[in-house]
Amino acid sequence: MCGIVGAVSKRDIAQFLLAGLRRLEYRGYDSAGLATVDSKGKLNRLRRVGKVEVLMEAAKKYPIQGHIGIAHTRWATHGKLTEINAHPHISENIVVAHNGIIENYKFLYERLYRKGYRCMSETDTEIIAHLVHWEQKQRGGTLAEIILRIIPQLYGTYGIIIMDVHNSNVLTATCSGSPLVIGCGMDANFLASDPIALLPVAHRFVFIEEGDIIEVTHCTIKIWNKFGQSVNRPEVEYFIKDDYDIESKGPYQHYMQKEIFEQPKVIKDTLKNRIINGAIIFPEFGQSINKLLSKVKHIQIIACGTSYHSGMVSKYWFEELVRIPCDVEIASEFRYRKFVVRKDSLLIVLSQSGETADTLAALRITKNMGYLSSLAICNVDYSSLVRESDFCLLIKAGIEIGVASTKAFTNQLTVLLMLVIYIGQIKGMNSKIQSSVIHAITLLPDYIEQVFSIEKGIANLSKNFIDKQHALFLGRGSLYPIAMEGALKLKEISYIHAEAYAAGELKHGPLALINMNIPVIVIVTKNNLLDKMKSNIEEILARGGNVYIFSEYNSGFIESDNIKIIPLFENIETIITPIVYTIPMQLLAYHIALVKKTDIDKPRNLAKSVTVE
Ligand code: F6R
Hints:
Blueprint: E1 3-9, H1 14-24, E2 31-37, E3 43-49, H2 52-61, E4 68-74, E5 89-91, E6 94-102, H3 105-114, H4 125-139, H5 143-150, E7 156-164, E8 171-176, E9 181-184, E10 188-192, E11 204-207, E12 213-216, E13 221-224, E14 235-237, H6 255-261, H7 263-271, E15 275-276, E16 279-280, H8 288-295, E17 298-303, H9 305-321, E18 326-330, H10 331-334, E19 345-351, H11 357-366, E20 373-378, H12 384-388, E21 391-394, H13 407-427, H14 431-452, H15 455-462, E22 470-475, H16 480-494, E23 497-502, E24 519-523, H17 530-542, E25 546-552, E26 563-568, H18 577-595
Parallel strand pairs: 17-18, 17-19, 19-20, 20-21, 22-23, 22-24, 24-25, 25-26
Antiparallel strand pairs: 1-4, 1-10, 2-3, 2-4, 5-6, 6-7, 7-8, 8-12, 9-10, 9-11, 11-14, 12-13, 15-16
Helix pairs in contact: 3-4, 4-5, 7-13, 7-14, 9-13, 9-16, 13-14, 14-18, 15-18, 16-18
The chain binds fructose -6-phosphate (F6R).
Residues 304-307, 351-353, 356, 359, 404-405, 488, 492, 610 line the site of fructose -6-phosphate (F6R).
């Protein structure tokens, strides 16, 4: 979602700000802008609807310079997608860029209106600019002092950078519920909502804590906590692997396609040094966690979207393999209900980005509520979720740029299955089952490579979906969440309405939908539920439905006019089928989106990192 970059330097920073915005593009946005103050003290602002590229083109036509500036990519929340609503926003000498949502902005505007302020935009952000300006006019002080005074008036979430044209050597910032990081450079300091924006210029970072107020010049950094006390925050060195090469998709047409095909490699990365002498090892866990895990009698998983689906799969694994009851809940529901904490319950927060607003909020409200501990499973080691959880396990998917999550999902599943076995090892799991699951995990990269061989068949099928408005996905057991994931991928990138059901639910309603225009995608493996699935398929065929069956070669299905079979190889270990069967779902969604010519990597209305509710 929205991204912010700020810089104060001895040199011109306009090009750096634009490059920083490009590095934040993957998060999703719909307009972009920047504002700088030049050596003559003149404020320059440029904003455009659409891609950063459009802003860059505009910057060529209307060159913009300055040694201090802020830039922003906006994902519209309050106010339409227009240039006037794009950030930065201005109130005379005060310039503001903001991530998050100010929930009481209308109330604040009414008060400011009475004082003579008029908003040019429909955004909640412009209110912050006016509020700062009003405070400065009334009571004066530095921007840091002004922020400290106005913060109690702002309800919502925010990462804010503010610049004062009359004091153009300082950037001031604060955050609550929306991350900000300082990048320490040479004769320059930088601010951003995501360190990725700062990779070319900074390796030393200071992560801002909730409520901190910061003031940076080109050579100084000052930080105060939310009570206004001066504090030191640790400087950490991060040599983040710069694999965010926005020009390079290699031989692939889209990032999503690249990321699908990277899965065997990144699963190998995730497994590396974690399977030793036939046992799962997590070197990042110290000894203390083993004692804690030995006590676990319940697991509560919280996540959103695709991450929620991986949590759902792991519920089957936790309960089947180690007999630990597991509940999985969508973070946006969990955070607002009066939940009961089970005895000896471990909280697992699952998130690719580690910045998802609802998941982060859920983690925060569970503090001191009685969970044994919190464990983040995440792809981003410097994320808020990782920093705020008691323990963390990193998936090693590498940066994911396509908005539709692919490699992060299968990596989450891999780490979750390893965690199940790790807990099993502590709790005295049957050693034969343990070895067979670990063996199956090591086969994953090869299995996934093999699935790629059916891509051509899937691409051919995708043409059948070009005129379809709806699709139904069915699965049972641990493949039911994979049906949900398949439906989510399809709707996200092809805009076809897709629903997933546990196949046993068909008779309880969805059968009414069946006709020849609604393709039914069935994911079925050769397990104890195969015959049940066959009956479900008969029920669909009897009502004139068209079925696409993803199953192993020898599952006993025969192609006909209304049955298409997409065979995977034989005798795959049942426990890892959810991971392996995810790949054809990703390929199906990808190829359908390809024939429908949608914006696959940046589907409409969506953002990669959902940092607001
Ligand atoms: C869909 C997708 C989203 C995310 C969700 C949570 O392809 O990627 O549903 O899974 O927004 O994001 P994270 O995992 O970053 O918390």
